[in-house]
Design a protein that fits this description.
2 copies of one chain form a homodimer.
Chain A: E1 34-38, H1 47-57, E2 63-67, E3 73-74, E4 77-78, E5 92-95, H2 102-112, E6 116-119, H3 130-145, E7 149-151, E8 157-159, E9 178-182, H4 185-197, E10 202-207, H5 216-225, E11 231-236, H6 242-255, E12 258-262, H7 267-277, H8 284-294, E13 297-299, H9 302-314, E14 323-327, H10 330-342, H11 352-361, E15 373-374, H12 382-394, E16 400-406, H13 414-419, H14 422-434, E17 441-446, H15 451-466, E18 471-472, H16 475-496
Helix pairs in contact in A: 2-3, 4-9, 5-6, 6-8, 9-16, 10-16, 11-12, 12-14, 14-15
């Protein structure tokens, strides 16, 4: 069986050979030629087995060697009683055995010439005990002495779909251009799944837990130089070395848009951080000041991180802050106005000339022919909708168009309409006419709570991002992300002029 | 056919006969014995037809009389060329003809002895023209002279599922205990659909648009006295008469929890309000002051309105602000701590005694045995989960328990687990043990974005609210709603002590 044999030359870092761009130093950790899983078992819910299944399903091409004291086979693969018994070289070791037994394993790793150890195993400094801290120091020392890099402990490891590496089950196989470093495994898993659904897949993600060796600074540094990564994202609970971090963050933010989410910004959150990854959350004002100095961006939750990342992947910087909002619904248009204005964006009133044009297309009653424009009457008339969007986008008074559709505010019984593909039709109309629009365009698909609406909304999202349009899931989120995005570019222009 | 004949005694207000509680004066508008639909047509997407279909499907028991100049039949019902030709009494008229023709129709209504006219028709004061305003004054004058109450113009009308009245297609048939007055039809539709999905159905909702006759004050007054309504909710863009409104709002807030959402709180939103319903949005600081004086509650968006309403329907007031948070995931627990602390709630550290108890149930590594508690290891062990929740809820250091489940952070390939009903099992375990808990309990079901997770989350929500537990869809939303709910009760206690 393929995974039983030592692979000849499957290192994905080989992909870069012959190219002018050299991969950054740390790149080898994403391209192990073989992986041993110490702590795999015969229980399918065991994390070693979950990862093994993910590697197999995700097309990992290297050698996979489960290690268990007594089992002969795990998931169809030959199982070895210990690391030293594996007759092939091992680059990467998954550690899923109790913490007390890990120092012995580290000695085996050293003897075997292992390059990277991923400690899923928890029970180290995050316990807050002297024993936990001492054990963490002990494994770190063995690693450093023997040139082994540690991921974790208390971490989910590496996601790199182009190499077939996964840090959980059910993660997308498609590779993208976001890089992620995260102290939380759950947050990594959520981001990798959700961002891909929204059109922003990850190139690589590292869940580094306690970060006793490879830490936030190492990983920021790596992603700054990684050719596959266009936008860097991070979930950080605490920073080990402030000066080093500041330097790494500045380098990252200079190289690429860098978006940070901080866990433990309140007193109570900081205490939880101690128990979660053993990190010191530090002062929020110091943190905020640091972020601002480096030009990195800060967000308040996981979904906002995705919102902002989408803009960097999909949207050209608008010339200014003037937005035209076009969609269905009066009350929703009022919310749109409040949200955009409240986030520091401008919704200029349409010119008389433009209004006259629009009034020629739609009856006045029940529509709002201004900005935001309520196009209720145009919903069943794609041709008029197209003409209205074109007229608005050609007006020189705006820098950006935001189209929106709120599913569950629609007064018709939506299910038969959705069955007939109505919203997809509207979406295709919108997408088609945006191809000829010169100003940047984004889409808000919102208020889709009923199961059928939700499903339609997911499909409509894909229609949009496949056409290169970023999609937000509420007006407030769109307004917040757009405002930050525009401010970011305005600051950078000032910086370089 | 049933709807062809004049109904004998189907007025639902008859339900209150013999009861001691008398319905409030305006109650008859929710119980018309017959409805004429002026402007129904042969087009299924025509709003008159959408409502007619909803009345038929929703079991409206009175006479239904479509009116159209030439059609003999609409949706299987006899159609009349004009209102006067209907050979039966008409209580309620749906107006869906162009604005210019409505004064003549109002004269017909007067001649026919109609009691309520619902103007779906737009094209009045919201146009911002002298003609629009004059036409609105004209229909209002005819109505006042003839004792007819007007709903609208530019409105979606009345939802009262117990009478078979609907203001859109696809609205729930189940009746509940929320009352709603809303200047936006779309917002009414969204709230009625979404709140019901979340366990909070409406008793009655009125979308009153421009509100030229029946306005926010009349409706607040009605809901204050309505026996079917336990919580009043409102979406308001502008107020016609400040003094009257203040009086009505104070009466409402004294009688029941009253939750308001204001559209047009920014300068730009206020301009949009003018075009939407012709209302004057007014000063935000004056508005905020007014709300505070009356003891009503204010929210920032439609979903927050539902969140808060759920608490009033499902939760007994907690004794204080001390919350225990129990659920799966380390990073998510950090967010929970930040969210709750940030909203002014307290997450006391567990006592040593309680920690020792919990440590006896779960291994330390990979769990957080403090507040918030990360129960990752307990996910597959309902018995341990139950014992942990029991131990925590018996601790006297807390006033409230918040259980949570974040679907898409779970590292296992979720689809097969969901297929096997895993989350429903966890939910049933949680629900079952909360039956014996004395402190109030709420649930957060969050991070459920993938279609299968979303579906499971919807079903799990229902398991919870059927067992009397309010469910929130994010930690931030839960924290915000709980904090407001507790503050509301603390203020009322101070008021009455």
């Amino acid at each position: 069986m393929m995974h039983e044999e030592e692979p000849k030359n499957t290192s994905v870092s080989g992909l870069h050979e012959g190219l002018e761009l050299r991969p950054p130093e740390l790149d080898y950790i994403f391209h192990p030629r073989s992986i041993a899983l110490v702590g795999a078992s015969d229980h399918p819910q065991n994390t070693g087995n979950v990862l093994l299944a993910a590697f197999l399903k995700g097309g990992y091409k290297g050698g996979l060697y489960p290690v268990h004291p007594t089992l002969a086979e795990v998931m169809g693969l030959t199982c070895y009683p210990d690391l030293r018994s594996i007759p092939y070289p091992v680059d990467h070791v998954f550690v899923g055995i109790p913490a007390q037994r890990t120092p012995d394993l580290m000695h085996d790793c050293a003897a075997k010439g292992v390059r990277v150890c991923h400690f899923f195993t928890a029970g180290f400094s995050e316990l807050g005990t002297a024993e936990g801290r001492a054990l963490e120091m002990q494994i770190l020392e063995i690693a450093r002495t023997n040139g082994i890099r540690l991921i974790g402990p208390n971490s989910m490891g590496i996601y790199c779909p182009s190499s077939g590496l996964y840090l959980a089950g059910g993660l997308p196989h498609r590779s993208g251009h976001l890089g992620l470093l995260s102290q939380s495994g759950g947050n990594s898993i959520y981001l990798c799944r959700t961002a891909a659904m929204r059109g922003a897949a990850f190139s690589k993600a590292v869940s580094y837990g306690n970060g006793c060796d490879l830490d936030e600074s190492d990983l920021l540094d790596y992603f700054s130089d990684d050719h596959d990564t266009r936008v860097i994202t991070a979930y950080i609970e605490g920073v080990k070395n402030g000066l080093r971090f500041r330097h790494a963050l500045r380098k990252a933010a200079d190289a690429k848009p860098t978006i940070l989410l901080k866990g433990g910004k309140t007193e109570c959150g900081a205490l939880t951080v101690r128990s979660h990854t053993g990190a010191l959350a530090g002062s929020t004002s110091v943190w905020d000041g640091l972020i601002q100095q480096t030009g990195a961006l800060q967000v308040d939750d996981l979904d906002e991180l995705i919102d902002l990342a989408l803009l960097f992947l999909y949207m050209k910087p608008p010339r200014g802050r003037r937005v035209a909002v076009v969609g269905l619904g009066g009350g929703i248009s009022v919310f749109a106005a409040d949200a955009f204005h409240g986030s520091g964006l401008l919704l200029p009133r349409f010119s008389e000339e433009l209004k006259t044009k629009l009034l020629g297309m739609a009856p006045t009653a029940g529509n709002i022919c201004d900005n935001p424009m309520d196009t209720s009457i145009l919903f069943f008339n794609p041709d008029l909708l197209r003409r209205a969007i074109n007229a608005i986008s050609q007006w020189e008074g705006i820098d950006l168009v935001c189209l929106h559709l709120a599913y569950d505010i629609i007064g018709w019984d939506l299910n038969p309409l959705l069955d007939s593909g109505l919203t997809h039709q509207v979406m295709h109309t919108m997408v088609e006419c945006t191809r000829r629009i010169k100003v940047p365009v984004c889409v808000v698909l919102h208020h889709a709570n009923r199961p059928t609406s939700y499903e339609a909304c997911i499909q409509d999202q894909q229609i949009c991002w496949e056409a290169g349009l970023p999609v937000f899931l509420s007006m407030d989120k769109a307004a917040k992300a757009l405002s930050r995005f525009i401010t970011y570019h305005q600051k950078r222009i000032r910086l370089f002029c």
